[in-house]
Amino acid sequence: MKTDQDPSNCGACGTKCQQNEVCTASKCTSTCPSGTTNCSGSCVDLTKDPAHCGGCTATCDAAPHASAVCQNSVCALSCAEGYGACNGGCQKFDSDLANCGACGNACASTANGVAGCSNGKCTLTCNAGYAQCSGSCVDESSDPKNCGACGKVCGSGQVCQSGKCALECGSKTTCSGACVDTGSDTSNCGACGKVCPAPAHSAPVCQAGKCQFSCQQPYIACGSTCIDPHTDANHCGDCQTVCKATAGGTATCSDGQCSVKCPSGSSNCSGKCVDLKSDDNNCNSCGNKCKGALGCLLGVCL
Questions:
Q1: What SS3 state is found at 55?
Q2: Which residues, other chains included, contact 240 with Cβ-Cβ below 8 Å and sequence gap of 6+?
Q3: Contacts of residue 81, Cβ cutoff 8 Å, sequence gap at least 6
Q4: What is the pLDDT of residues 56-96, one digit of tens each?
Q5: Among 26, 93, 147, 163, which one has the highest count of C-beta atoms within 10 angstroms of its own C-beta?
Q6: Please, are residues 207 and 213 in contact by the beta-carbon 8 Å criterion?
Q7: Within-domain flag for 189
Q8: With the C-alpha atoms ordered 241, 242, 247, 253, is the resulting torsion angle positive or negative?
Q9: pTM of the model
Q10: What b/e string do you get for 88-112 counting C-beta neighbours within 10 Å, with b at 16 or more?
Q11: Which structural domain range is residue 211 located in?
Q12: Are 173 and 193 members of one domain?
């Protein structure tokens, strides 16, 4: 509570202002000073109070990794240390694939490799059996432009077999000068040129000439995507569980368990977002029901 504004606790806990009085600067007075507005007995500055931003009933909502602020009667977010403003929320740019180092700087994926973001810089990890050559992931055992080593090009009419330039592929299939096994090659899976796609947070796999994908930890496969069951509100704990929001609240998933995040000025009582200052069934604290006909006012049962 704010004892400098609360008419029920003006200046100190339990100090109530008289009827028709307001609380400002921890003192009960008859009127609010210039620049402030009377909101249910509290004198507030509507230009910067996040609980009364632009109007007595206008509350600014916080967001993950951010606190709510009011700037010139407009709600905004103040990001926590280590986070930056991005797309209406706060992101951590040191490890976010879509915002690596800066908002909107997405790390591009490449065939046969997985993009990553480490310390705000994009990285590339090639799949097993592939090597990184000039930002691409290549198979040095079969790539005629990188045969046995990056940049080693086979001559005209030659193919690359087992990392050496040769005239023919033997038992393997010739695909654009590369000697490949179409049963396991993710760039030529089942046929030359058939590249196996893979969703975000996964690596492509070719088994018996058919494309599949393998999700990276801690992600799991849900249909054709890879999700994090620890934080995904649409797949919380498993592929089927969707977290549901209540009126005034936002559904969240933490450690695989659904929960509700309530906006600033309200509290979570048994999964519902309520105002402890006015809720007759949760007056000043969750479960405290008012018995009187007048209900709850400013957190007090009348």
A1: coil
A2: none
A3: none
A4: 888 888 777 888 889 999 998 888 888 888 888 888 888 88
A5: 147
A6: no
A7: yes
A8: positive
A9: 0.53
A10: eebbbbeebbebbeeeebebebebb
A11: 181-227
A12: no
